[in-house]
Amino acid sequence: MTTYDLIVIGAGAVGENVADYAKRNGLSVALVEADLVGGECSYWACMPSKALLRSTSVLRAARSVGGAAQAVTGDVDVAAVLRRRDSFTSGWDDSGQADWVSGAGIDLVRGHATITGVKEVTVDGVVHTATHAVVAATGSTALLPDIPGLADARPWTSREATSATTVPQSLVVIGGGVVATEMATAYQGLGATVTLVARSGLLGGQEPFAGELVADGLRELGVDLRVGVSPTNVLRTEHDTVEVTLDDGSTVVADEVLVATGRLPRTSDLGLENVGIEPGDWLQVDDTLLVHGTDWLYGVGDVNHRALLTHQGKYQARAAGEVIAARAQGRELSTAPWGAHVATADDAAVPQVTFTDPEVASVGLTADAATKRGIDVRVVDYDLAAVAGSALHSDSYKGQARIVVDESRKVIVGATFVGPDVSDLLHAATVAVVGEVPIGRLWHAVPSYPTVSEVWLRLLDSYGRP
């Protein structure tokens, strides 16, 4: 038996940050991992997916600017793209991240963790106890919908899509969210013939124009977009192709099928039933990330379903590490909104980028979500292509910008940008939303000319002096 102040289950980016912040605050910490240290983001999500997308994105950007376009004389080097992707995953070798854990003074325990009692975690027969807290930072896994034949067809999930060693000649993508649209973009760019099947359209939860512009972009890339239809059957044929039958009577045949229809929490085999918590469910937590009904178990990152994004999980992790240490040491807590020991931004200030072509960058509430919260909403839209910096950025720039204003307080509660490289606009919007910067003060934040950021001036012009 070994004893620590804190035991963290899951050594992905979220678990690492909880452990690091708790250790920096004076706690002894064990970090338990059954797979690769660094987790989903490092090996099967954020890093490899963006590496797959980047090369073709740069190529398209060059082709959209006169002078540069004439210099592009070849196609993307797929083998080089895959090698570059592998460099970001260190060839799926986690020794570098394991060394970081050791260097931070955190004990790495490899193996499957089971919660066997209050503040008790058993790993491969060895019992570890926590004097103060246990953190579940086990993340999420791909949801496989109940489509006849799908499970037997050896479908890809995001893991297979981001770690593939070859590019299939053809690919069917089922889903319309971030993973589906990004991987459709990536594989079409790498030479596959892609069909995207999206029952409810693209990028639900974003402003409607985001999904519409991304749909247009996918079609321009050559993706066969099937919206409003659903798969009714999937068959892996004797020729090792995949046959997907849709409810409109059509059939799509491809080399592989990628399922990207949602996520499930990795809580089914944690032993939660041993402490009276239903296994397999998302963990319900308060703003200090403490699991409801406990005073020792924390759920951080995807596992609590507040915001399934690495950067937001790391934000939660910083708060969790700080609050666990403060409680362990009997220090005063700062748990008021925007305090040091709470994850307030998860409620209405989450930034997100979808790396499609065009990109989608958003933060805060959509107009619909704000209205449903009872906010006195005013929406301001602007055509990004009408900004001088956009014309310089690309000869065929297309895009849209929107801010959602709380008229009663005269502050921005949401912003969405769609267009090439709009991710560069996002942090300014995030600061405006989180800081609740009055519209009147934003008038004095002068954007540089000629940049795409000039859209801020145009949005404020359209709004008018408050």
Automatic annotation (TrEMBL):
Residues 350-456 form the Pyridine nucleotide-disulphide oxidoreductase dimerisation domain. The keyword Protein biosynthesis does not apply. Disulfide bonds join 41-46. GO terms for molecular function: dihydrolipoyl dehydrogenase (NADH) activity; flavin adenine dinucleotide binding. It comes from the Bacteria. FAD binds at residues 50, 138-140, 302. Transmembrane segments: none annotated. Its EC number is 1.8.1.4. Its cofactor is FAD. InterPro entries: Class-I_Pyr_Nuc-Dis_Oxidored (IPR050151), FAD/NAD-bd_sf (IPR036188), FAD/NAD-binding_dom (IPR023753), FAD/NAD-linked_Rdtase_dimer_sf (IPR016156), Pyr_nuc-diS_OxRdtase (IPR001100), Pyr_nucl-diS_OxRdtase_dimer (IPR004099). Pfam families: Pyr_redox_2, Pyr_redox_dim. Keywords: FAD, Flavoprotein, NAD, Nucleotide-binding, Oxidoreductase. GO terms for biological process: 2-oxoglutarate metabolic process. Binds 1 FAD per subunit. SUPFAM superfamilies: FAD/NAD(P)-binding domain, FAD/NAD-linked reductases, dimerisation (C-terminal) domain. NAD(+) binds at residues 175-182, 262. Residues 4-312 form the FAD/NAD(P)-binding domain. Belongs to the class-I pyridine nucleotide-disulfide oxidoreductase family. This is Dihydrolipoamide dehydrogenase. It comes from Frigoribacterium faeni.
